[in-house]
Amino acid sequence: MVQVSDQAWRVFHWTCFGIHRTRPGSRALMPLPSSPRAPLARTTLLKMGGRIGVIIALSTLFSYLHMLHTLRTKALAQLQQHVTERSAREQAIFVLAEDNHAFLKKALEERIRALEREDVSARFDRLFVRLPDGTVRSRPELVDGSREVQGFIAPHVVIDAGFRARFMAAYDVLTWYGRALSVRFNTIYINLMEGAIVGFWPWAPSWAQQASSDFSITDYEDYALTQPKNNPERKTIWTGIYLENVSHAWMASVGTPVDVDGQHVASIGHDVLLDEFMHRTVNDHLPGAYNIIFREDGQLIAHPDLKLEGVTTPYNIPHAAEQPAANRLGSKENAAHLRDIFERVKNRAPDQTLLELPEYDEYIAVMRLKGPGWYLATVLPESMVTQPAFAAARYVLLLGLLSLLVELIIMYRVLQQQISRPLENLTQATDKVAAGDFKVALDTARHDELGQLARAFQLMADEVQRREEALRQSNENLEQRVEERTREIKELHTQWLQTARRAGMAEIATNVLHNVGNVLNSVYTSAQLAKDRMAEMRVDHVGRVARMLEERQSDLTTFLTQDARGRHLMPFLDKLGKNLHEEREQIISLLDDVGRYTEHIGDIVKVQQNYARTPRLHEQVTLEQLVEDALRINAAGLTRHQVKVVRDLASLPPVMTDKHKTLMILVNLVSNAKYALDTVAPGERLLTVKLEQVSTDRFRIGIHDNGMGIAPEMLIRIFQHGFTTRADGHGFGLHASALAAQEMGGSLTVHSEGLGRGATFTLELPYHPVLPQQAA
């Protein structure tokens, strides 16, 4: 459905339904107040653009998450594949070395057994010579070290027939196969356990002549590793990396023990140069990743940050802090990072090749190289996965925003042409109608919602014009009707004032009669008690005593001392006097109460008179005494109803308040509580009066009874004028009391748990302590 601007709808509605606001005699309608208008097309585009933008943002987020998952899966698969392929390539040289050793071991054993039956002394002496330093070396004039095998025998070695046979057997085997094997290995040698070595070193053709006389093969790790005590399984074993002292190149050696007839006689060895291996490990890696190689005991073989210049010992990962060159990785952070990688690899499951290092946001693919058993690990930062995903998501977002911009431009042109301009014409038409010009021309030929709206508006303008003509005619008689109605209202107002004045007078009279009635009950009760006391006085006893004394006047002394009745006459007169005195005091007290009640009646009348004049002034009041006065006024009724009164009155300093209004309220509350207790058994009727100060500026008086209670639906009506729950009640007392409490700035409230559960009326008034000058 086509959207229509709010102003257009307001004008349409006002024009159709607001014509009654035209003043009599006016031809023009009241114009609408002008306010800034936002173009509909722009507002619509902003709303639609915002919603579409949210959709694009959500789509971009989901795309990013999907691409992140896809790229992570692909990257990890590629990482595993890279490590698998890389390990297969790098371990080939080690596997080949072990295969060579197996072949050479078999050939050496066969050659040793063959030469043990021959005399090789002449050939030995022709090829080797003992030098003045005691060593036996290849003859330099006969040997081209770059193409032939060289030999070195330490001075301490005993050269016997068996040794010559084993030495020449090693020489023959290397002569036959050394050159072929040197294509892949720079060094091929055989160690004889007595302390001799035979080798093919094309890269060091004069090695046998340059070796020092104290050179010993026992100083090398591969010699010790092939000993039976260190290699009981008699398998091929690899050394760690070391810096060779002649070539000054980093290499690793592999040794295979050779046993003949159960005796360890020799070991076959290869030296694998590691410079190219290390360089390839550091520089040939996946984009953004890096490779490291380390041995199981933590010896580091290759690392991008490892510095080997000027050092002779390898770097050990677990013991980096104990090494003199602990900073060979560039920083302590790099060393700690490498240590965490090492620990993670060491603690992995045997078949686990892909690891995660969350504290560094890295993935690690690891494989163990066959042969030396070194770990090849490739470390890939997670950023190499998230960055492509973020970049792709950014392109998606940019393309989405660009598409949104193009769509908004197209939509803007369409909205402006199809909706904004027709609505603008409709708005201009509403302004003309509001100004009183009903001649409008709109495009009613359209068959959409705007065309329907234009036709409806045209019909509305014609109808409004017709109604305005009718209204102008009816307005001519409007003033006369208004004057007549005004006179009627004035007369009704006068009658209402008279009625209100009579109602006010009646309410005042009712309040006076109700409050006076409460006090008159106490006056009547006190007068009746005084009458009863007077009736019970033993005045006739005085006359009888007087007649008796008059009869005995002649012998009064004898009568009072000797007659039985005379002796009792004086004690009787004493008791009679005391009794008459007590009766007189009680009658005087009852008459005092009548006087106070009469005074209170006068005060009630004065309070009601003050409604028509200025408010009554506050006077100094002792609250505890005021509560006692209210109970004393109702004392006769409470006694007659057998009500037990419990007092919980706090001793408060005198306050300034309207004494007689407060007393009137308390008298009403106590009187109502008395009647509420009629439904309770006489021995259980209980009235509790509590006086307390609730704050520094408020005090509270609570009247609680355990009588009939109040139903919940009656609580909201209890203070209404004329509402009562008693058959003989009038409903004036609580209404007047609530009004009096409000006039004094306080409140009168009621609480009841329901019928049969008693009620509590609470009077809360301002606490105005007596100031020193007021007390004076």
Automatic annotation (TrEMBL):
Molecular functions (GO terms): ATP binding; phosphorelay response regulator activity; protein histidine kinase activity; protein kinase activator activity
Keyword Phosphoprotein: yes
Coiled coil: 461-495
GO annotations of cellular component type: membrane
CDD domains registered for this protein in UniProt: HAMP (cd06225)
Catalytic reaction annotation: ATP + protein L-histidine = ADP + protein N-phospho-L-histidine
Domain Histidine kinase, residue spans: 511-769
Transmembrane segments: 48-65
Pfam families: HAMP (PF00672), HATPase_c (PF02518)
InterPro entries, alphabetized: BphY/WalK/GraS-like, HAMP_dom, HATPase_C_sf, HATPase_dom, His_kinase_dom, Sig_transdc_His_kin-like_C
Highest rank taxon of the organism: Bacteria
Cell compartments where the protein resides: Membrane
Domain HAMP: 417-469
Keywords carried by this UniProt record: ATP-binding, Coiled coil, Kinase, Membrane, Nucleotide-binding, Phosphoprotein, Transferase, Transmembrane, Transmembrane helix, Two-component regulatory system
Annotated EC: 2.7.13.3
Biological processes per GO annotation: osmosensory signaling via phosphorelay pathway
Protein name: histidine kinase
Organism listed in the record: Cystobacter fuscus (strain ATCC 25194 / DSM 2262 / NBRC 100088 / M29)
Organism ancestry: Bacteria, Pseudomonadati, Myxococcota, Myxococcia, Myxococcales
